[in-house]
Amino acid sequence: MSGRAPSLASWYADWTGLRVAVLGLGVTGFSVADTLAELGADVLVVTESADDEHARLLPVIGARLHVGPLSEVPAALVAHAPEVIVASPGFPPSHPVVVWALASGVPLWGDVELAWRVRDKVAGAGGTAAEWILITGTNGKTTTTQLTATMLGAAGVRAAPCGNIGVPVLDAIRDPAGFDVLVVELSSHQLWYLSLQTGPDPLSPLASVCLNLAADHLEWHGSFAAYREAKAQVYERTRVACVYNKADDATRRMVEDAEVVEGARAIGFDLGVPGPSDLGVVDGILVDRAFLDDRASSALELTTVTELAQSGLAAPHLVADVLAASALARAAGASPAAIRNALRDFRVDAHRIEIVATSGGVTWIDDSKATNPHAADSSLALYPGSIWVVGGLLKGIDVSQLVAMRGGAVKAAIVIGVDREPITAAFARHAPHVPLFEVVDPETEQVMARVVELAGRVARDGDVVLLAPASASFDQFSSYADRGRAFARAVREKIEREAGGGHDSDATGDLD
Fold first, then answer.
1. For the structural domain made of 354-499, what CATH number should be given?
2. d(Cα 123, Cα 119) in Å, to the nearest integer?
């Protein structure tokens, strides 16, 4: 199907009357509908469910809404005869509507492609739009995105962290204040939609990074190869710096395979001594050997691991995030002094290796953001003898390798969530000596109360109780943050009870 949609590459192009179907009405879907309505398009939002606020606002902005099952292509969508479909990232390639769009030849965009097409809104027709820096990876995306934007801000650059971090990129594009740089966190879902780009002006970032690669979201992509291919999209058409993880060879191969703009450089980072064109660590000092003239024989100091410890950034995986962010910020012109200043005041988000409390010699740590085995591995490496709270929605991921690698060292494991059986089976196979307790089908609000009760019976002076689920949270909680808050609340309630004299039992027998 041909049409004018592929040629629309500016806010100031004629979008009037363009028939667009928007799939989904979450935060991203609403930002898409709102943008297109402002452009004058004829917008139909198609969704299986809609919250009251978004449903109320759609007619106000001039869009229409169809709510109903999407197991088949709805008649309302067919009747709309869309000239382009913009899908929210929750719609996988196998979704019936996505399959129909691809088979019908209707251009299929994600919100990021739409944002790139209209990125000149604030700059004005023919003006200079913000540069883009793209960040993806199985883990560390949000921290690296925040770090990069903070570093650029310290350098006097108006930078906006956006995308998968929680602020839709379309909202950043339309901010009337305007920005110099958009630091865009991208999920593998968003990157898959970017791989479908058409038109004369595909996305071309100033700098890009894939921080690491491990199995995740296989139920969405269908295979690890497809997941890897989506992640690799981040490097396409990069103009200045393709930043990759020297400790993760998959990211290097992605850079080697990418079609980049002539002159773009490959910039490596890891925790070892850097070579020329790399960032790394020498005797506890983070250094840059990439963005200086005499990189063959000298380096620039960025900060030290000791200084990072004062900001809670000294864990190895966080040091790696700092190096990646530094490379991106340096590619955009930030000085070493600006990077150092930014890091002094930076603090990691909640629910990422966050100490909830220390009481009775027991430290309770919330790493609810460890939503896959790769992330949980970092936490378990820091606290190898912990009481491990694990489980949730595995998203098709095999957890047995993590249990084989780290499970044998934990003091005990408390398994939660709907996908408990693969975890308990992995312990039976790889770490049968580890005490194992299941939290079986409690009310959601009681899950963490039960977890804390069980952990309290096992924990002794000097122990760590580590919530690092290696799983998504949506089986029992609304988000990883909701899960972390529930854990912290249960810990505080336990401590308050004990302070009032209501101590938990010290029994360590059969706990379930």
1. 3.90.190.20
2. 8
Query: How far apart, in whole angstroms, are the C-alpha atoms of residue 67 and residue 76?
Result: 10
Beta bridge partner(s), residue 281: 286
pLDDT tens per residue across span 269-305: 999 999 999 999 999 999 999 999 998 889 999 999 9
The CATH architecture that domain 119-345 belongs to is 3-Layer(aba) Sandwich (3.40)
- The H or E element that residue 364 is part of is strand 362-366
Burial of 422 (0-12, 13-18, 19+ CB in 10 A): middle
Question: How do the domains of the chain map onto residue ranges?
Answer: 11-106, 119-345, 354-499
Whose tokens are 């040091």? That residue is: 319
Tokens standing for residue 226: 């497809």
> How far is residue 399's CA from residue 430's CA, in Å, rounded to a whole number?
11
In the numeric block, which tokens belong to residue 495? 């401590």
Strand duo 19-23 + 84-87: pairing: parallel
CA-based Rg of the chain, rounded to a whole angstrom?
A: 24
Domain 11-106: top CATH class: alpha beta
Query: Does residue 148 contact residue 160 with C-beta atoms inside 8 Å?
Result: no
- Say what the pTM is: 0.80
| Angle between helices 336-345 and 316-331 in degrees, nearest 10 | 140
